[in-house]
Records
---
Amino acid sequence: MKQLEGYWRHRLTNIAGVALSGVAVVVAVIPLVAMMAWVVGKGAGAIDLNFFTNLPVPTGQSGGGMINAIAGTILLIVIASVIGLPIGILSGIFLYQRGGTLFGTAVRYVTDVIAGTPSIIAGVIAYGLLVVTLGHFSALSGGVALALLMFPTVTRATEEALRLIPPAIHEAGLALGLPEWRTMVSIILPSALSGIITAIMLGIGRVAGETAPLLFTAFGNPAVQLSPSQPVEALPLQIWYYATSPYQDWQRQAWAGALVLFALIVLLNLVARFLVWRTRANVQIV
Amino acid sequence: MGDTITVRKLSAWFGNSLIIRDIDMMVESNKITAIIGPSGAGKSTYIRCINRMHEVVPGARTQGEVFVDEFNIYGPGVDPVAVRSHIGMVFQRPTPFPTMSIFDNVAAGPRLHGLRNKHALRELVERSLQQAALWDEVKDRLKEPATVLSGGQQQRLCIARGLAMRPGILLLDEPASALDPIATYKVEELLLQLKTQYTVMIVTHNMQQAARIADNTAFMMGNENRVGELVEFGPTDQIFSNPLDRRTEEYITGRFG
């Protein structure tokens, strides 16, 4: 019964393959879930309303919060997004259009190199460009450092999102007599919208937790400060100061800060998904 | 009324490789002209030259002339984008725009060319869907995404989308190869109706399809250097019953291809 032997061999190979994939999934998911559970568990106990409304207090006192760091992180993300997202998305579109040319290959290579640059180097560049020139630390310099880290992720993810749209859709637009830009703006970009939102989220997620490049750019600030030209606090900075301190109440605050940072990114993600879903639901009609 | 198409010494390249060479053809208006031939004969490349779609691929170029009525679409200063808006094209796989509703798909061409009048758009969409024999199936769900339609319906939607631009010519590149026999039959019936108003050119792998619907048939084949050439062109009856070229006969009788 030669065929039957073959059958069992294929069946066993299949079972082994499925089992291995299952193990790989578990191995990938365990650290993720464990980390989330750890941060939520440790952070939830330390968090209260004061955390969102009050400024930090010296160790030993109760009722301290991180309002300065929460506001600072939001300001830094906004500045980084304003600078980094247009560069990232537009260069992603460029790579989709001209990725095969010599210049396109060069752009892609350089983007990958920048993506692999240690984040502290981005801080050094922003320091040299802005802190030295302007003579003081500022939210702007921190935002520029983060934008530098953000855009390569956005560029590559945008390109990938656009490549998922079947080329025939692109050709169908051109065949209607639409110019290239019109096909891009009205057909390809809307089709790739959810992928581009993912690219934006990846970019923001990439920089939201960065600490090193902010040390000598945004610098930190014990007060709530919303001007781009002045130093600001940031959650990762505050978490870092508190976590490395010897005081137990500060360490508890650091866990709370980690949870807030985490929740901030999840929230941002949900809002973006909701916006995409709502645009989809409202298909336009005359 | 449909336009005539006159092709003169048309050649097309991808980079340095010649794909089709020196094609001459007179396509009659308001007739269905089928292009048949084995894979690699350059049929798709050829039909994509008729609306200047060939050149959208980087490195692709053409030489020769194509006259639509009296107008040379490869003449100096002619904008390929404008050419494409006067010639409809349907592809092998249905290509509904995924984020648009059924209505918006059909309205896409005129709307993106600047037609804003809602009443005019509605009329145009209805007329185009009726011409594409799809209106009765979709009139109550124009707001639904086009992707909910079946493959055959999507293909007729793409035909309607092309018709909404009021072209004189409709080009179809193997429009039924991804469809089941019933959907194929519907598309064929539709093309027979459309030829009263448009000039239809269709690339097909399916010889029976050409025999069923085409008034004239062109047989293309790669030569010894794999360069596509027009072997024979004539009335469909004559091509299938009494081909003049030995290669046409061998292909028709299934000796190769």
---
Amino acid sequence: MSEATIKAEGLTKIFNKHLVAVDHVNFEVKAGEIFGFLGPNGAGKTTTINMLITILKPTEGKASVLGFDIAKQNYNVRNVIGVVPQEYTADEDLTGLENVLLCADLYGIPRSVAKERAMDLLKLVELTDFKDKKVQTFSGGMRRRIELACGLINRPKVLFLDEPTLGLDVQTRTATWNYIRKLKKEYGMTLFMTTHYLEEADALCDRVAIIDHGKIVVVGTPEELKHGLGGDVVTLSIKEDFDVSEIIKKVEHVKDVKKEDGSYRIKAEEGEITAPLIIEALRKKGYTVSKLSLTEPTLNEVYLEYTGKSMRDAEESREAFAAQRMAMRRAHQ
Amino acid sequence: MSETNGNSKSKLHGLWALTNRELKKWYKAPVIFMLSIIQPILWMGLLGKAMNIGAIFTGTSFPLPQLNPPLTPQQLQQLGGYFAGLQSSIMQGAFSTTDYFSFMAVGMISFTALFTTMFSGMSVVWDRRLGFLNKALSTPVSRAVIIFSKVLSASLRSMFQAGLIIVVAVAFGLQFGANFSPLNILGVFAIMFLICVGLSSLFIAITIRSTRIETPMAVVNLINLPLMFASNAFFPTKFMPDWLQTIAKFNPLTYTTDAVRQLLIFNTDWAQLALDFTYVGIFAAVVATIGIVLSWRFLSK
């Protein structure tokens, strides 16, 4: 496929004429990749996904999924996509199987086909034993899995996952990651997901877009983004009480040196090559390295670099987010 | 991949699935199901038997003025007969039937239609809040189908309850009209279906944009009883003040109730029955169209 699977151009959503939730975003998702939208709560991730799955109309700009325009050909879009929403939307009064079959009916899948598929999917998400239990008895992880089964019932070519592991424990989260990887690998599915977990984006996504205040600040593979920061971080300290910043700066590959509390924080491309060079340079001048550690930058540092705040700070603004979300919900009233 | 090829392309696909989802919440939940059966029986028993209007006109229900000379037992008996005749002609004149219970029991059918359908608006709000609505909207199912499944499930529920009311009312002593035939029951279901489609479309149209459960509750509380009493469900409109009669004349419940009475307990006036069906039918068609148009506009933002 020459064209991008998902393509957004200047996609914008303004609620209530002044609340800009998504602000002219441009991105492309290639066939068969897992594309992640990473950002704090309230950054515009869900609004973007809701526009792509055609339940929200964009205020401005356009986007297409598999070549279908999300505004003009929304029916075609809905036919080829699967959606795993953030909320637990399965009907609590129905059983697991009934829920999956209900979803099949919504896609107009004939009963005979639907039954077989539903059983396969329940097996995939390991809920076969619970298929006749009402969803109200399910745990959070099981509910998430039933959502996944529902989202896959029409064999979508593109699957949208909105915060697929929100509120799940570590074990269930890892299991969910495995399902997602399996979908990509075995079915060649294109996946678009949002998350505010850095480690999730890092572990799963082929490419990540960091979104903040409705704008995409950077797009790339997790590796690219981390390398874009200037590579690895070498932290070292020396026995002697003397500022050796200037010596370190002259070493090949070193990009930046900061002295913090008697230790040096050195940004360098390919730390494992640079670190011995630094030790060598210092030894030549008669200094002895007493401690050295090499760390690869995490997405958290990437995030910090581009949004000016760490993910944790962003999380703390949850109350502000709640207020904003309330405003969004009421915006159309 | 071309798996979607075998899928239904019908604009109505998913209608029965969504309707059945609503109905399952009702018939698979024993408590709710039982309550929905008990409620009309209780109301009918209480209202119908408590408001025993016919009894007011019997000779023993009010003190007779002392006459001088006192009435002989023979005269008393005569007077009793006179009152009995009076009662039946007053009842016939006022209610077009001699039995208030029969009159009221039929009103109860409209009452059930109103009370069952008004909750369909709430279920849209619940679906919105729980995210189910968004999920359904992201599937190829038509927006109109989402709304119409609510309408249909409320209608089927009311029709079931209407059937039940007829059975119970007969057990309690409903007196059928002179030219009643079992086929008339089908007519009752037909008019029930029409009024339920109209009413539940109305309640959905009012609450479709609402994101809070309080809104439809307030709406329902505001309009249900006025709508009920500004109709002929419990009392004939001809004794109402003019302004109320005017309101009742536009109230589709008046026509529904009248149609059911024509079919079950009156000597059927076919012209009047045709008018009733036309009025309720137009009401249902107009409001359902409005509901579907609104669903196109407001289900997605």
